[in-house]
Amino acid sequence: MSRRVGCSKRRAFPLKTGPNGEPSLQDSAGQTVEFSILTSSSNADRTKMAAIIEDDLKELGMHVQVVPLEFRSLVDRVTQSKEYEACVLGLASFDADPNSDLNVWLSSGGTHLWNPAQAHPATPWEAEIDELMEQQLAAPGFAQRKKLYDQVQQILAQYQPMIFLASPNILAGAKNAIGNFHPAVLEPYVLWNVEQLYLRNEPMNASR
User: CA end-to-end span of the chain, whole Å?
Assistant: First the structure.
């Protein structure tokens, strides 16, 4: 039986003082909570994000080390050898329908990054997501699909295999003469409905 999302008690770990007076979070075995975060050395934004996370977690007593890697080496660590503890990485999607990301959410998917390409779901909650995703594929209407996706999001929010950090702000503009202009939040931002765009007839110059 798969585990349903619900409230659970979280165990509080003790916060101690380190040798230099800094806070030090201890786990249930009395060990200092420490881990590394991999990120791409060629992506300045993600490197800065990882550094911000490092600083924030330091205030909570966690010892975090940011490890920038060449992108190909980073991908190999995450998808092949799996020799990593945490990673700041971007997943891009150009479709408003979440089904384009099935390879992320299904346990058998190659970009199911926390444990990719599983022959069988490693955990009950991943098996439950697999089941829900299969159900929504056969759902006849939007309302049914959304209800199933909402359940998937609840499970992800509880177990947090991935933590979603940021989305970019998109600014788009056009002249008033462009009709049916409706920018989207996904690429292509302004040309997704290119076959519906048109140029309005400007009023004749009064002097003519």
Answer: 79
Residue 48 corresponds to which tokens in the numbers above? 């800065």
Both structure tokens of 208: 């003519």
| Nearest-angstrom CA–CA distance, 51 and 195 | 44
Beta bridge partners of 66: 37
Gap between the Cα atoms of 74 and 43, Å rounded? 12
Instruction: Enumerate the β-bridge partners of residue 65.
Output: 36
Q: Are 152 and 132 in contact (CB under 8 A)?
A: yes
What mean pLDDT do residues 1-23 have?
56
Please say whether the beta carbons of 17 and 23 come within 8 A. Answer: yes
**Residue that has been written with the tokens 């979280």 in this structure:** 10
- Per DSSP, what are the bridge partners of residue 87? 38
At 46, which helix (H) or strand (E)? helix 44-59
CA count, 13 A, side-chain hemisphere, 182? 6
Alpha-carbon torsion (80, 149, 6, 167), positive or negative: positive
The 10s digit of each residue's pLDDT in 93-117 is: 777 788 888 999 999 998 898 888 8
